[in-house]
Design brief:
This protein is mainly α. The chain has four helices and no strands. 83% of the residues lie in helices and 0% in strands. Helix 1 runs parallel beside helix 4, helix 2 packs parallel to helix 4 and helix 3 runs antiparallel to helix 4.
């Protein structure tokens, strides 16, 4: 595996994992009042576009990281509608 691919996978893993504490906290507290609807809506749209880009250029780190990031960020967005 190319060393830059490994760096990309590591970067994607770290930036994706960063959303996990927010998902857990929002789920446990059942409160999303301090979550910005606008920010997460725009962010999810951008991440979705990164998924399309990663798929179209065949970039595994971009594709994998953004699929997982989208799932976590979209979960927070759903919590915003449910609890916020």
């Amino acid at each position: 595996m190319n060393p830059f691919t490994i760096i990309g996978l590591a970067a994607g893993t770290l930036t994706t994992i960063a959303f996990l504490p927010q998902v857990i906290k929002t789920w446990q507290s059942k409160s999303a009042k301090d979550i910005s609807l606008g920010m997460f809506s725009i962010f999810c749209t951008g991440v979705f576009l990164w998924i399309i880009y990663g798929f179209s250029v065949g970039d595994l780190p971009v594709l994998l990281a953004n699929i997982v990031t989208f799932i976590l960020a979209f979960t927070i967005l759903i919590f915003k509608f449910r609890y916020g």
